[in-house]
Amino acid sequence: MYNEIQMKEYQTAINDPSLDRSSRLAALKSLAAEEPKDIFREFQRSSAEINNHIHTIYSFSPYSPSMAALLAMKAGLGAAGSVDHDSIAAAEEMLAACALLGIGGCAGFEVRASFRTGADGKESPFASRKINNPDSVGYAYMTVQGIPRQSIKKTAEFLTPIRTKRLGRTRAMTDSANSLLLEAGLSKIDFDADVLAQSKYNEEGEITERHLLKAVADKIILKFGKGNELCEGLKSKMGITLPTKQIAMFSDANNPHYIYDLLGILKTEFLPKIFIQPDEEECIPAAKVTAFAHSIAAIPAYAYLGDVGESPTGDKKAEKFEDDYIEELFAEISRLGFKAVTYMPPRNTPEQLRNLRRLSAEWGFMEISGVDINSSRQSFNCPEVLKPEFHHLLDTTWALIAHERLASVDTCYGLFSETNPVASMGLSERLSFYAGLGRKLDLFHPDESAVMLAKEIDKGDT
Known about the structure:
There is one protein chain. The longest helix is centred in the middle third of the chain and has 32 residues, at 152-183. The chain has a 7-stranded mixed β-sheet. Among the domains are: 160-274; 391-462, no CATH class. Helix 1 packs antiparallel against helix 2 (21-34) and helix 2 runs parallel beside helix 4. The protein is 46% helix and 10% strand. It is globular. By secondary structure, the chain is an alpha/beta fold.
C-alpha cells in the first residue's frame, strides 16, 4: 500500500551524501518498487529528452547519482549521464540507478586541459587565448565520455594527481578568501571542516571552486542572515552591489534556491579576487587526455561554450570566447585527437548551433548534448533537443549509450575502434547503427543485453 511518509523517507535516503552508494541504491530500489506507477512517466525512446552532462555530489551538485537519475526520469528523460569534474566516482551508482529506473545511463568526467602546447609539441596559438574557460587563458574544458565499466578504476587512477593538485590550490585560495572575510567582519573558513569535509574528496570525488564559495556563502548568511540585511551586507561590507533581479531573490528569505543563487553572485563577484591560476600539472595537456581516452576506448570531447550573452545560471558574465576563431580551433582539436564536440543547446543562439553542427560534420566529430546540472534552480529538461534540427542529438545519445555498454563487453566494439566489426562504415552511418543498438537495449538489464547485441554484431544479424 502506498505510504507517503515512507516515500519521503526513501527520497531522503536516496539523496543523503552521508550514506554509501549501496544504501542510496537500496532506497531507490524500494521507491521504484512501491511508488505509484503513474509517477514514473512512460517515454518513447525515439523522442524522449536526454541529458548527458549531470554533475553530482562527487563534484558539486545538490544531487547524489541516485537522485540525479530519479529526477531525470521524473522529468521525462529517456537517458541521463553523469559528468563530474576530475572524477569518475559517480559512474557505478549512476549506471545502476538508471538501470533500476529503466532509463538509459552513461558516465564520464570533465577536466580543464592545457591548449598551450599543440599536437606537434610546440607552443600553440591558443596559449594566450581565452577558449571556453572564463577563469583562464590557454586552458579549456573538455570531457571524456562513454567510459567502459572495466576502465573506471583506471580512470580514477588517472585523475588522482589532478585532484591532488586542485586540492592544494583550493586550500591556498581559502587563505585568500579568509583575508577578505576578516576584513568584512565575517568568520574565517576552516578548510578541513567547512570545505574538505563537505565534499566527497575522500571517496575519489573532487573539490571545486564552488565548494569554497559555498563555505563563503555560509559565513555570509551566518553574519547577515537572509533577506534585505544580506543585500545590504554584501554591498557595505564586501563591495558587491546586486542587480535588481538578484535583490528580489535574496530579499525572499524563503527562496528555496537561496544558497545556489548566492553562489552564482560569488562566482562572478568574489572568486576573481581570490582565484589562483592552475598549472599544467593540474590542467594537463589536452593531447595527454585524449591519448588516455583512446587507450580505454572512451570518447574525448571538446566542450563548446561560445560567446556568452546572458548566462542562464547567473554564474557567467557576458563575454567573448572561441567564436571568432572557431574554424582554427576545430582544426586544432582534430589534430589533438578529439572525437566529439559536446555542447548545451539552451546556452547558445540558433546561429551558434547551426555553425557548430556544420563544423562538426566537416571535421567528422560526434555531437554530444547535455546541460550541466549543479544547482537546484536548473531544470533537468532540455526541450531544445526535441526540435527537428536537433533530433540527431537524441540519436547520438543512444549511440553513446550503446558504445559504452558494448565497449564494456569488449573494447573492439567501441564506436571509434579500428577493430570494430563495423569500422568500415562512415561516422554518420556508424552513429545511426549504434543509435539503433542503444534503442534495442533492455534498459533494466543493459549489461546482459549488451552481451547479446555484441554476439549479433559478430554474426552480422543486427
